[in-house]
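Dear Dr. L.,

I hope this message finds you well. Following up on our conversation about the binding site, I have prepared a predicted three-dimensional model of the protein together with zinc ion. For your records, I am including the exact sequence and ligand specification that went into the calculation, followed by the structure tokens. Please feel free to forward this to your student if that is useful.
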Amino acid sequence: MFNIFATQTVRFLPRFYPDILWHKPAQEKELYITIDDGPTTQCTGKLAEILEKFGAKATFFLIGQNVVAEPGLVRELKSAGHTLGQHSHSHPNAWQLPKEQMMAEMNKATQILEEVVDEPVRWMRPPYGRFTPAMRKWCIENEQKLVMWDLLPADYMATVSEKDISRHICQFVRPGSIVVLHDNPKVFHKTPEALYSVLATLSAVGWQFRAL
Ligand SMILES: [Zn+2]
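The resulting structure of the complex is given below.
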């Protein structure tokens, strides 16, 4: 139930946080897939292959430390036409961190990613989806859009199966939805298969998959 609850709850939030993106205005069957926590050698390439098979573009929110470890993967994502954003340097919980440290995390992740892709970073996803007023202000000042979601299939939860992930997305998707998936060790064994199933099911009924 957790994931359904999460998806339904976030639909009330945009009116309180107009600076944050929860959902893209869209009339057509357009889904925005976002993938957090990479790049990882075990999963990111697999997801990119599946996306390519369906002509799908996505947005990857990358952890600075992982960018340092796998800059080649980052360049591959960029040249495949995906959008890249930063997801902090070491994935801390902003609700438990002094704000100066969180700003340093975002500055460092941005600088590292910009050095690898040679263009400005324009998108930010807070680790665990936990944002603060200081982070919102930082994003505005640094011309990065803080991106949340309206679809959270909770692929990172041990009790959520590959079938649960795809069912959740296919059941709740609406035009302009932003869905969160991951490419971290918790999901290596299920998210690629779930993504394949979502792309196959939804593309058969006219959905397109866009990068932010
Ligand atoms: Zn994350």
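In brief: Residues 36-37, 87, 91, 127 surround zinc ion (CB under 6 Å).

With kind regards,
A. P.
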